[in-house]
Amino acid sequence: MKKCISLLLALTLCLSMTGMSLAEEGKIFEGHSLVLTGWGDSAEQAATQAIVDKFEEDTGCEVNYMCITEEYDTKITAMIAAGETIDLAAMESGSIAYKLAAEGHFEPLDAYVEESGIDLENAIGAANYYDDEGNLISYSGNIELMTMFYSKDVFDEAGMAYPPSDPDEAWTWEEFVDVAKKLTLDANGLTPYDEGFDPENIVRYGVNMGFWWPIWGSFILSNGGEIVDADGNFVMNSAESVDALQKLADLALVEHCMPTPTAREGMPGSDVALLTGAYAMVIDGQWLALTMADSGVNFGMGALPKMGEEVVSVTTCGMNCIMANSTEKEAAWALNLYLQDPGKEITMFANGNRMPTDYKWLTEPEYLEQWAGEGNPARPEGYDGIIKMLMNNSVPPFTGTIVNFSDMIDIVNKEVDEVIYGNKTAQEGMDSAAEQIQTAGIELSIRGAN
Amino acid sequence: MIAAQKKMRRSNYGRGETVAGWLFALPAILGFVILMLVPMIVSLFLSMTDYSAFKAEINFIGLDNFRTMFGSTELYIKDSLKATAYYTVLNVPLSLLVAFLIALALNTNIRGRGIFRSIFYLPSIVPAVASCVVWLWLLNQQYGLLTTFIKSLGFGTPGWLWDKNTVIPTIVMTGLWGTGGTMVIFLAGLQGIPQVYYEALSVDGGNAWHKLWHITIPMLTPTIFFNAIMAVINSLQVFTQGFIMTKGGPGNASLFYVYYLYKQAFEKANMGYACALAWFLFVIIMILTAIIMKSQNKWVYYGGD
Question: Which parts of the chain are coiled coil (chain B) (predicted)?
Answer without folding.
Answer: none
